[in-house]
Amino acid sequence: MEPLGDNDIRASFVNCSKGEARRISLPRQLADLPWADLDFLGWRDPGAPDRGYLVAERGGELTGVTLRVPQGGPRALTKTTMCSLCLTGHGGSGVSLLAARKVGASGREGNTVGAYMCADLACPLYVRGKKVPLMSMRYKESLSVEERLERMRTNVDQFLDKVFQER
Length: 167
Description:
Layout: H1 6-12, H2 18-23, E1 40-44, E2 51-58, E3 61-68, E4 80-82, E5 89-91, E6 95-101, H3 104-108, E7 112-118, H4 123-127, H5 145-164
Antiparallel strand pairs: 1-2, 2-3, 4-5, 6-7
């Protein structure tokens, strides 16, 4: 991914108002992120732990979505859960259900789409082996790193397609 600036990131959001996009807490030290290792930019808001953000290239354009952690019951800390984007297994709270409001009229009616994702949204780093899950380990696969990255990109695209679906 090419390095992005504040304005590029804020302009990419499709499921929130421009005012909401201006108030988003961007990652600290944006220029120091490992851009060459990122297929998408994902981060959680340190001031609002129930919020996350994902920005990816889709059809040649940047597409950003705001994500929320739905309120739910307690999670088992001994269970291993798998991210639906990168297929990395995490123990405890390493995977979260994150929901994105859909775009257009469907989103204004309150419709959302959700997926279980790495809680820190660092999927590209897990696939590349630059980051290791705390209480679990990556499953052995016969796919190359490039094939796993392509699968992850496809999964991100499919998630974003659902955000754009009318129903």
